[in-house]
Amino acid sequence: MIKRVGFIGLGLMGKPMARNLKKAGAGLVVHNRSQGVIKELRGEGMIAANLDVSFYTSGTRCDVFGKATEDEVRTMKRAGAHTLKFGAESGSQRVLDVMQKGITVEQTIEANLRCKRHGIIPAFALMIGYPTETFEEMNQTIDLGYRLKRENPQCELETMATYTALPGTPDWHLSLKHGLKSPTKLEEWMNWNFDEYDLEGKKIPWFKTRKERRWVGNISYMSILANALGNVVVSARNPFVRLAAEAVTRPVSAYYRFRLRNKMYKFVPELEAIRLLREKIFYKSTYTFK
Question: How many C-alpha atoms does 184 have within 13 Å on its Cβ side?
């Protein structure tokens, strides 16, 4: 019996032929101009194999997800799709266009609702502090995050990361144009991370005042406390530690969700203490959280 078959073209004739080969027990190596059919067949193979797995995808595009048929999404769910992570980036269409992201805010909203209909958890990555972005546009991103959560309570919102330019990316030259000076030594890249304050203006120099750069950092930190703090707590293996930590962090997250939703990020002095504590626990401590 033939154990492996190469198959090119999965159109109206090719797809049912490929399915028949799979049913007969042949392994398939397929090629098609459209990737949607390939994903569908891959999902069917996982279902047929009864693998009983759940998977998380990183880097799902909401425009591509929107092109999938209802049957394809149902197949994805049956194959084990648990969480799809979307790069929503911004609630401002102007900022998305400057990024050349190639998506619309409405496509993100529809992807969220579609995941809800199919019982798939969507996770959304949002970003603030992009070159030329205003605080009004950052507020639109905050509003988008809360709309997604309101319309689909199962959706996950991660840290609203501060935009951090990296060499080789399409936005690098845009950042240089707006005043970014590239690090020249390896040591200068050490703190080039997306979820930390940039009060000195090394990463986001287009915000001209220290006060504005603090506001950007406040939004990012508040989003961590509002949306991501619980993820750290549930990772604790000791059930007593986990329950105690949940009791403490739940009201903290609720407090910062309220403040972020209402754009109360300009004066949050306690974040400086939280910032120092986070640095001590996660960056300088050798203790393993169990």
Answer: 1
Spatial separation of the C-alpha atoms in residues 279 and 261, rounded to whole Å: 26
The DSSP output letter for 125 is E
CA distance 114 to 98: 27
Length of the chain: 290
The full set of domain ranges for the chain reads 4-11+33-284
What are the DSSP E strand ranges found in 150-190? Answer: 156-162
Pick the CATH number of 4-11+33-284 from 3.40.30.10, 3.30.750.200, 1.10.3370.10, 3.30.1200.10: 3.30.750.200
pTM of the model: 0.80
Compute the 3-state secondary structure of the chain and give helix, strand, coil in percent, each to the nearest 5. 50, 15, 35
Residue 290 pLDDT more than 60? no
Residue 47: the pLDDT is: 47
Tens-place pLDDT, residues 154-176: 999 988 999 999 998 889 999 99
Q: Is 10 exposed, middle or buried (0-12, 13-18, 19+ CB in 10 A)?
A: buried
Instruction: Look at residue 89 and give its three-state secondary structure.
Output: strand
**φ, ψ at 50 (rounded to 5°):** 55, 50
CA distance linking residue 15 with residue 259, whole number of Å = 52
Whether the CB-CB separation of 178 and 132 falls below 8 Å is answered with yes
Both tokens of 232, joined, read: 């750290």
- 3-class DSSP state for residue 204? coil
Distances (CA, A) of 190 to 145, 181, 184, 278: 30, 15, 12, 17
Give yes or no for a contact between 168 and 228, defined as CB atoms under 8 angstroms apart.
no
